[in-house]
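Lecture notes, unit on protein representations.

Consider one protein chain, 369 amino acids long.
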Amino acid sequence: MRYTQVIPPVALLAALSACSQHTQSFNPTPKPTRPGQVVVIAGAPDLNRDPRDGEYALRSSAYGAGGLAVSRDGTIYYRVYHDDDGRVVRLGKDGRIQLNAVGIAADQLLVHGNDLWLLAAKSGMAITKISLADWKQTPIIDWTTQAAAATIDVTGTLGTSISDGAKRELYSEWSGGRIFLRADGTPIIVSGAGRLFEVMGPGRLREWSPPGYAKALSGLTKGKRLRPADAIIDENGQVTLLGRAGLLYIPRTGRARYIRFPSSAAAFPPWSAMITAGHGDVLLLGGTTATQRTPHPTIVRGDGRMEHLSWGAFKWCPGTSGGLSTIASALPGGIVRREDGVILMNDRRCGQIYAFKLPVRLKGSPFED
């Protein structure tokens, strides 16, 4: 015989509540599903402790000095503060983190094949290559002191070694440098002054001067430093460098050219990151500080036209509630695009990493000169 169980109202309410909580359970691997949507994939800003190996990225600290990279299989790498040394996080597809010790305090990361490249360029320069298979670390350049110049072989564009005096002058240029991968896979260093150097191997650099680059650099900087903030390469192999005064373009074939920002751009903080947006367009991000909070996301067309995008007012560490205003308000430490087209960006101000999709059409109001 079967009996009908009578459930009291309080018990029924508890059961319904439990069911509701189950449907709202924690999702460790959120993904943007529509254009313009922003989701947080790592970082709990309210945590006041070091991240722990094996915990979920969304429930650990993602504060760090910058740097973000993604491999072809979608694995994400970023640096976090941990004790005095720092760690590089490997964020797997299950949403959990793996902490890995590194030998340098990197502020830039990039993945090439099965290797992770780290660059530290705050005082001098250090480059380390790490095998993603076994985390074996290979020091490539250690030019963190003036005396270290004696251990580095630097050749000029004609293939001859530069003088010791020239190397001493070069040391001061490393601070604020950037690293990117050329279309042929060669790592390229951009010095603070804008000079380009191919990384030829451990302790070996060779200056690179693409056709028209020296003239374009001079035209953009007008005798000042380039002060590179970011460097990217598009689907056609064209390199774009983001400087304080404008953009430098280095096509895979042909001559380099530049676009100067209008004088009105000097009224607000400089952009600090960029990402390709298709059709030769580049999206500029950053440009906010704690005191100057008006977002200035900007699209630079391939022909040089600039348009200010209206993505909303400044949002102070809004998590997922701000939409694209979250991206416009961030202090980017790195920005990359995954194979599926989703863009990843870490926010140094808020200690979070975002994943988002751009709107299908990016259209804004023209910049005034």
